[in-house]
Amino acid sequence: MIREKQIVECVPNFSEGRNPGIIKQITDEIVKVKGVKLLDVDPGEATNRTVVTFVGDPDSVLEAAFNAVAKAGKVIDMRNHHGAHPRFGATDVCPLIPVAGITLEECAELARKLAERIANELSIPCYCYEAAAYTKERKNLAVCRKGEYEALPERMGKDEGPDFGNRPFDEGVARTGVTAVGARDFLIATNFNLNTTSTRRANAIAFDVREKGRPMREGGKVTGKPLKDENGKTIMQPGTLKCTKAIGWYIDEYKIAQVSMNITNINVTPLHVAFDEVCKKAMNRGIRVTGTEIVGLIPKRTLIEAGKYFLEKQQRSTGIPEEDIITIAIKSMGLDDLKPFNPREKVIEYMLEDANKKAKLVDLTVAGFANETSRESPAPGGGTIAAYMGALGAALGTMVANLSSHKPGWDDRWNEFSVWADKGQVLMKELMHLVDEDTEAFNRIMAAFGMPKKTEEDQRLRSEAIQAATLYATQIPLQTMKASYKVFELCRQMANEGNPNSVSDAGVGALAARAAVLGAGLNVKINAAGLKDRETADKLVGEANELIAEANREEAEITKIVESKI
């Protein structure tokens, strides 16, 4: 299985919003780190504060954040800072947010390590807040920032001082202030478009759904006085959506009212759940939601989860290509209601992918792939083609599952086939990854052979590199064999239970899977021959031979099933 790539978002706030030169010096430290994509720089003159957003893999994000904090500590002097926004440091806050392949808890650990490094190497004291907080009270940023920069002389060096770098107030702290480093869930800012111009009605819908709700009133009437508890605090009637904040407003640009919402935890309230609930509450008030506007960027899983949710409501298979699922999400929630919605410009993973995009075989056209294979270069070769044949076998099995899911008269079986189609999509993704990975493995061998060999030490290092690369080039086609072998289960099930009109497609899928297993097996054997560790080589070849025998058996049995039904 391919592990999902880890992506973290970082949104540091710097206490400078008026000098573009200073802001650029800070952001330059971010963009020079490989593996990071700068998404947004939002300076505010009144607040004298700039909010920066960037994403990347965890290690790259931590390095970029550290470098930015270091630069801010040099170019911003907090003794001269004034602005409308609360602040207590040159880098005021630096939260890490999980986007993909990483948990909030893991981001919290990363935030603590970053805070410790900033304090130790830069002498900038740090509080840890939100999910990274060491105490319940410090989860609240306001507690950490109490009294702001001006209160630091009284707080530093005492129990209420920072978690890292706590020392008496000195010239260094006077210049840099302190920084709050934390971790929080991804926040989605969204507006739901209404077919009304009434702000009052939009507000009513917002109060229906937001977690805070609305004040309870005497007699249950809108005009009644708010009810108070024994402490004189207004009693609230909670809304229906946890982890949401919302308000209604009128947008002159669009000539409509909207419910403007912040979803503070998409694990508790996903976007599609919020959309459906706003639709329901709007309908109760005679109003219709015409679409959704996303403010800023979103993680890919938000659209994938939404697309699958709406497909399941239609009793349609979810085992379809990713781009098709996203299209369903866009159309279901009306993300293109007010203006075109381009996932490549709104989905964080796609933006990061496009920024670091390298040429891949799987991105070629069918003709381009064939032409590239036919050239005199040794890669792509048999291992790559084997992986692609395995992917095609999985694709055929998945196609039969989807056709069966949508077959008239089989409506009660849609979910059964959808589950198989989902499995097929996972296999396709793994095998498509191996298409390029096999070529990369060959390139590693060529790179190792190209290492210098003038001295004995050069020769030793070169020999070790060749052996490591050869082992990897043997393991990759074995992975292809194992992944391709799983295709038989899908094709057998579709031959037995799938749409009888497509049984031949299941048979061809099995033939492609057999070719993939046998073809990748040849690559295991030829690469294993170059291994000096014969015990490891024999073990790998033994595994390959077992898979080849099983593949021959599986393909023969599936072909019999197919022939019996034609």
Give an overview of the whole structure:
The protein is of the alpha+beta class and 566 residues long. The chain is built from 18 helices and 13 strands. The strands form 3 sheets. Strands 1, 2, 3, 4, 5, 6 and 7 form a 7-stranded mixed beta sheet that branches. Strands 11-12-8-13 form a 4-stranded antiparallel beta sheet. The longest helix is centred in the last third of the chain and has 42 residues, at 456-497. It starts with 6 loop residues before the first strand and ends with a helix. The relative contact order is 0.07.
Comma- or semicolon-separated keywords:
single chain, 566 residues, alpha+beta, 7-stranded mixed beta sheet, 4-stranded antiparallel beta sheet, 18 helices, 13 strands, flat
Strand content: 5-15%
Q: What spatial form do the alpha-carbon principal axes imply?
A: flat
Low-pLDDT stretches are: none
Q: Rg from C-alpha positions?
A: 29 Å
Tally the helices. Answer: 18
Count the E strands: 13
Please report the distance between the alpha carbons of the first and last residues.
Answer: 35 Å
Q: State the assembly state of the protein chains.
A: single chain
Helix content percent band: 40-55%
Write the layout of secondary structure elements.
Layout: E1 7-10, E2 13-14, H1 20-31, E3 36-44, E4 49-56, H2 58-75, E5 91-100, H3 104-122, E6 126-130, H4 141-144, H5 152-155, H6 171-176, E7 179-183, E8 188-194, H7 199-209, E9 214-215, E10 236-237, E11 244-251, E12 256-263, H8 271-284, E13 289-295, H9 300-313, H10 322-333, H11 343-346, H12 348-355, H13 366-374, H14 382-405, H15 414-449, H16 456-497, H17 503-528, H18 534-565
Parallel strand pairs: 5-7, 6-7
Antiparallel strand pairs: 1-4, 1-5, 2-4, 2-5, 3-4, 8-12, 8-13, 9-10, 11-12
